[in-house]
C-alpha cells in the first residue's frame, strides 16, 4: 500500500498513521509532510523504525528550502517517481 503524508506530522493523527504502516508499505512525504523527514526530528525517528520504505517529494522539499535539512535516510523522488509509486500501489491512503 502507498501512504502519502501531505500534512505536517504535528497537524495530523501521526500516531494512527504509524500504527497503520505494514511491512512492505511505502510512504511518500509531500507538501507539508516533508517536515517529517527533517534530520533529528521525532517524526523521522518514528518513521525510520517503521517497516516501510520512505520517500520525500524533491519539489516540495525544494519549495520549502529544506533540502539541506532532510535526512539522507529518506529517498528523494520526482513527480514521475510519484506517479510510478501510484501505479505500483492500487491501494493508497492519504494522511
Q: What does this protein look like?
A:
With 95 residues, the protein is of the alpha/beta class. It has one domain: DsrEFH-like (Hypothetical Protein Ychn, Chain: A). 33% of the residues lie in helices and 20% in strands. The protein is built from four helices and five strands, in the order βαβαβαβαβ. It has helices at 14-20, 42-49, 58-63, 79-88; strands at 2-5, 26-29, 53-57, 75-77, 92-94. The chain has a five-stranded parallel sheet with strand order 4-3-2-1-5.
Question: Topology of this structure?
Answer:
Blueprint: E1 2-5, H1 14-20, E2 26-29, H2 42-49, E3 53-57, H3 58-63, E4 75-77, H4 79-88, E5 92-94
Parallel strand pairs: 1-2, 1-5, 2-3, 3-4
Q: Please estimate the helix content.
A: 25-40%
Please state the average pLDDT score: 97
- What is the CATH class name? Alpha Beta
**Structural domain count:** 1
Q: In angstroms, what is the radius of gyration?
A: 12 Å
Which assembly state applies to the chains in this document? Answer: single chain
Question: Would you report the number of β strands?
Answer: 5
* Largest sheet report: 5 strands, parallel
Order of secondary-structure elements: EHEHEHEHE
The CATH topology assignment is Hypothetical Protein Ychn, Chain: A
In terms of DSSP E residues, the strand content is: 15-25%
How many helical stretches?
A: 4
Name of the CATH homologous superfamily:
DsrEFH-like
Strand order of the largest sheet: 4-3-2-1-5
CATH architecture: 3-Layer(aba) Sandwich
Structure, briefly:
The protein contains 4 helices and 5 strands.
Amino acid at each position: 500500500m502507498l501512504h502519502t503524508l501531505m500534512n505536517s506530522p504535528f497537524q495530523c493523527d501521526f500516531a494512527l498513521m504509524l500504527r497503520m504502516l505494514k511491512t512492505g508499505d511505502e510512504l511518500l512525504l509531500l507538501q507539508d509532510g516533508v517536515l517529517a523527514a527533517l534530520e533529528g526530528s521525532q517524526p523521522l525517528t518514528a518513521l525510520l523504525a517503521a517497516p516501510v520504505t520512505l520517500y520525500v517529494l524533491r519539489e516540495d522539499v525544494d519549495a520549502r528550502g529544506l533540502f539541506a535539512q532532510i535526512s539522507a535516510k529518506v529517498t528523494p523522488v520526482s513527480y514521475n517517481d510519484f506517479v510510478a509509486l501510484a501505479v505500483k500501489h492500487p491501494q493508497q491512503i492519504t494522511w
